[in-house]
Amino acid sequence: MLVFILRRLMQALLVMLTVALIAFSLFQFVGDPVSNLLGQEATQEQRDALRKELGLDQSFVAQFAAFVGNAVQGEFGLSLKQGRKVSTLIAEAFPATMELALAAAVIALTVGIPLGVYAALRRGRPLAQLVMALSLLGVSLPTFLIGILLIMVFAVNLQWLPSFGRGEVIDLGGWTTGLLKWETLRHLILPAITLSLFQLALILRLVRAEMLEVLRTDYIKFARARGLSERVVHFGHALRNTLVPVITITGLQLGSLIAFAIITEQVFQWPGMGLLFIQAVQFSDIPVMAAYLCLISLIFVVINLAVDLLYFAVDPRLRIDDAKGGHL
User: Fold this and answer.
1) Dihedrals φ, ψ of 58, to 5°?
2) What is the domain partition of the chain in residue ranges?
3) Between 104 and 243, where is the model more confident?
4) Which residue in 71, 129, 247, 304 has the most C-beta neighbors within 10 A?
């Protein structure tokens, strides 16, 4: 177990260093930050002083080492657009994105898994076929179109839910949330549904496919031959083994929800990291873009590590291979 964790940590470290190098390279090829900060009217002395203060007069290796050191401490400099610390901007936007991504993940899991099991156990029935048809629609439709349709129906025509913003949030010691008030929670419903639909359809189809595959295996036939009830066979044996690959996909999709919430946040003007990143791209705000890239990569690395550990705990074959010194 310890060898497995150390191996994964070394892989994660290499990935983060590679991402840090890519993020740092953005500074080298997209304009001069000194000109962006001071403007064209600044004197040469002012430019030289700021360049020295930012460490831009040093070599590439020295600058990269300083960048990594600051990134480890959560520091990415000043935003070229707002003139504020990037870490502060990220800290303000991060709770909104996490709240949206977690709400979407809960919807995708609590709806996708039961529907996938139903579509597998009731294969061929009209309702199961309708579920599969709707799941294909959920996979095919682009996120921005789903968001616009939901806004048109529930915000414009029916006027049941707000169409943009996060509403009034509560500050819990540096972490803001809108989950504690119904009026604010209403703002979360449409963007969370929009973000969850693709993941929901994907999980549904995956669970159905895996469930059908497991139901064909010999040990399921043996369980039925022993006289076990269909409920025990389906939910005590088949579903448990179905969820092993689903854990991996679900973990990766949680990272995708956070990384690709950009479109949903743009459509609903949700004040999260995705909207902050879009604004940074429009202004060529490289420090914000680099911080976003590093943070999203870190989230993916942590989620992948957690998924690997869960997979290791769930699948006994991996523990046997690791005990024998096998490579994963």
Assistant:
1) -90, 175
2) 9-72, 93-323
3) 104
4) 71
